[in-house]
Each structure stands twice: as C-alpha cells, then as structure tokens.
Design a protein that fits this description.
Layout: E1 2-4, H1 16-22, H2 37-45, H3 50-57, H4 66-70, H5 88-100, H6 102-112, H7 116-127, E2 136-137, H8 138-147, H9 151-160, H10 169-197, E3 205-206, H11 219-225, E4 234-236, H12 240-253, H13 262-272, H14 276-290
Parallel strand pairs: 1-4
Antiparallel strand pairs: 2-3
Helix pairs in contact: 2-3, 5-7, 6-12, 7-12, 7-14, 8-10, 10-11, 13-14
C-alpha cells in the first residue's frame, strides 16, 4: 500500500497569525546558515544517504524555523478556547459533515467499531473539519527542533526569543533537551517515509508543531496507524475518507471499543492529544452530535 500526502490547494493554520506576529519581534535569519550541519552528520551516521541529505538541506526553502519553534519556549499568553467547538455554529457544521461523509463514516464505523460522532469531533477540533490543516514547512520545524541538541543552535534560538517572553534558562534547557530528541525521531520518520515514496519532504506543510493532514498525524504515526479509507491502494491524509479511517484506526489501537465507559473513553482520546480540556471537548461534541 502506498502512503501519500498531498498538499491542499487552500490551507489555513490557526497559528499563522501568531507566527506572522512573531516576525515583528525577530530579525531575519539567513536561509543559508549552518544550523543543520551537525544534524546532517547525525542523520548520515544513522544510515541516511549523505548525498541525499546534503542535497535536501541545500534547498533554499529549508531553513532554521526560529519563528515557529520559538513558540514552544515562550510563556503562553492565551490558551485555545475549546468552547468554540461546542457552539451552535460548530455543531451545525459538524452535523453537515456527518451527512456529507456518511458513506465513509458508516464504512469506518463498521470496520473499526469507533463512533462516527467521536471521529467527527476530533476532525472538528483538530482542523475545523479539514479547513485549517496548517501551512508551516514540516521539515523546517522538525529539523530546527532536532538541531537544538547542538549548543550553538540552542543559543541561537535563545537569543532570538524576546527577553520578556522567555522561559527561565533552566526551563528552556530542559525543554530543548526533551523536544530535540522527540523531533529527531519524528524527522527520521518523515525522511524515511518521503524518501521511500519519492516525495520531496521540503514540500510538505502542516501545523506549526509538525502535524499533517485533516487528522493531524505526526510522521511517526503515518506508517503505524494511518489507514486507506477509500480502498484506492494509497493513504492520503488530506483525503477525508483516509483521514476518517486513520482517526478510527488510531483510537482502536489505543483501546477504543463499543460500550467503553466515559472514563476509559476519556483516556483513549487523551492518547490522541494529552489534554484534559481536549478530551472533555471531544466527548461533549460527540454527545451534541448524537442529539
């Protein structure tokens, strides 16, 4: 089965405004800096073709994504308003989505035994039913975070974060340690997938955190849990049928089954996004869709 990711013709990311605003805070960073030299060496040591890796990082669109990655290391001034997803307008749109994709949802519900309302609720919260899937370059985001293993790259990012928005230096260092290892794992998954499929990884866009498609999968989840919902022999996470099936396969993998108690349903949904308000919202939206 071939796995593909198409870039949608029209994409909007909820974080785009924030990222654009951060451009007012930072000066420009050259696209031809040396931020990824040591990262390239590490990838080659881990078995990637050095010539292919070098050619990839010579692409002028591949650069240190300081604006978006800095968001991970700033004091948060606001949090996502989950109430927007339970509004009458959002529920009306989600019910319309249920009708528009009834065949795919019915097929998926039968195969994976995951409630269509829960699948739809996740797609609503993740990407506003596929309308806001992100436009950040995933390769740049993951490469930048992975490069933070290097002290020079880490110091570069630290100096670019506004002093009044920074975490403490100790918090920054601990988070950089954690994020760099996580991002390197995701970067390797992205490269293995795209190289195997003949896709240029520099062209793939997603959320500011590196998630892709209508269902917002990280690269490491594509080969494990993405599913071919329309049985065309390939997986396209920007296709609603495939995204619907992928959400269901993900939840089933983490323990969803018919008759699950609210407590256990909450636990499974938190495997998708480890946030209590997120899981609460998904279950609330699903209940509203059943009414």
């Amino acid at each position: 089965m071939r796995v593909i990711l198409k870039r949608p013709l029209y994409t909007v990311c909820t974080m785009c405004t924030v990222i654009l605003l951060t451009g007012l805070w930072f000066g420009p960073v050259s696209a031809r800096d040396n931020a990824f030299e040591r990262l390239q060496e590490k990838l080659a040591a881990d078995g990637f073709d050095p010539e292919k890796i070098n050619a990839l990082y010579q692409n002028p669109t591949v650069r240190f994504a300081h604006r978006s990655v800095s968001l991970f290391f700033m004091h948060s001034e606001s949090r996502l308003n989950y109430n927007q997803f339970t509004s009458s307008t959002s529920i009306r749109k989600a019910k319309k989505y249920l009708r528009a994709h009834e065949r795919a949802l019915t097929r998926t519900e039968r195969k994976y035994q995951v409630d269509r309302e829960v699948i739809t609720a996740i797609i609503l919260v993740e990407t506003r039913l596929g309308k806001m899937v992100g436009k950040s370059r995933v390769l740049n985001t993951l490469s930048t975070m992975a490069a933070l293993e290097d002290s020079d790259a880490r110091e570069n990012l630290w100096q670019l974060i506004p002093a009044d928005r920074r975490l403490s230096r100790d918090q920054f260092e601990k988070k950089a340690d954690k994020k760099s290892g996580w991002a390197y794992t995701e970067l390797k998954a992205l490269l293995r997938y795209t190289f195997a499929e003949g896709i240029d990884p520099a062209t793939i866009r997603g959320s500011y955190a590196g998630a892709m498609g209508i269902c917002q999968f990280m690269p490491s989840n594509i080969s494990r849990l993405a599913a071919d919902g329309n049985n065309d022999g390939r997986i396209d996470l920007f296709n609603h049928d495939d995204a619907i099936a992928s959400v269901a396969n993900y939840l089933k993998h983490y323990g969803w089954k018919p008759g699950l108690s609210p407590k256990n349903a909450h636990k499974v949904i938190r495997s998708y996004n480890n946030s209590r308000p997120y899981a609460d919202t998904i279950l609330t939206v699903a209940n509203l869709l059943r009414s």
